[in-house]
Design a protein that fits this description.
The structure holds 2 protein chains of 2 kinds. By secondary structure, chain A is mainly α. Chain A contains 7 helices and no strands. Chain A is elongated. Chain A starts with 9 loop residues before the first helix and ends in a 16-residue tail after the last helix. The chains are: A mainly alpha, B mainly alpha.
Chain lengths: ~160, ~60
């Protein structure tokens, strides 16, 4: 099994927190970064649109903000600052769904951050799975080869013929 | 009735987003990520639909 090259996870995880997908890109993983970005950003924006662009703010919704939205990094910071003086004019039909969407988007960024951390410390998941499969195959072949190497035990060996027949 | 379809579409959107992020966190290549995304999306939808049907059946039993 090849040793996993370990990298310091601090900067990639920080980047993953600030911009969804940037942590993966910083460790050279293009497609995971693209998928993370393409999942989180539209979900966040759709959630804001459903809520009338007023649902991200530490004064209006402190529990949501400090519990979930804070994990959105610059996305949350920009939205909160840009909608600082937004007013709730009317109750929208899907307002609570929008709140849920932005919360889920920011919590998904925690999953992406954890994945960046894991890739820095333990390598890629597919490489780990391949290494496990190789190790299992090697162990299996070693088990299969073992009986041929071991000398037959006295209990299983055939009885010697008596001299003189 | 339109609201129901909107809610179903929103439900599928959030399931797809969760599937994409969890799929991306379990694979590296594009092919692997797409496969994991489809798996995660399908399992998430099946889980939530199953739970919903189970709760609905429980409510029917409770009302009877």
């Amino acid at each position: 099994m090849e040793p996993v090259e370990r990298k310091s996870p601090v900067l990639p995880v920080l980047l993953a927190w600030l911009v969804p997908g940037a942590g993966h890109l910083s460790i050279g993983r293009l497609w995971p970064g693209v998928f993370t970005f393409a999942a989180i950003i539209p979900l966040f924006v759709l959630g804001m649109a459903l809520s009338g662009f007023e649902n991200v703010g530490w004064e209006r919704h402190p529990y949501w903000f400090w519990g979930a939205h804070v994990w959105g990094g610059l996305l949350t910071a920009g939205s909160a600052v840009l909608t600082l003086h937004a007013e709730v004019r009317e109750k929208l039909p899907d307002q609570s769904v929008g709140q849920l969407f932005t919360g889920v988007a920011c919590l998904l960024n925690v999953v992406a951050m954890a994945d960046v951390w894991s890739r820095c410390n333990r390598g890629d998941p597919e490489a780990r799975a391949a290494a496990r499969a190789t190790a299992a195959a090697a162990a299996e072949s070693a088990d299969a080869a073992r009986p041929a190497d071991v000398a037959p035990s006295p209990t299983t060996s055939p009885a010697p013929e008596a001299p003189g027949g | 009735m339109d609201r129901v379809w909107v809610r179903i579409a929103l439900f599928l959107v959030v399931c797809l987003a969760v599937g994409m992020v969890t799929g991306a966190s379990r694979a590296t290549t594009l092919r692997g990520i797409v496969r994991k995304t489809v798996e995660q999306f399908a399992s998430l939808v099946a889980l939530i639909v199953g739970l919903s049907i189970g709760l609905w059946l429980l409510s029917l039993v409770a009302q009877a």
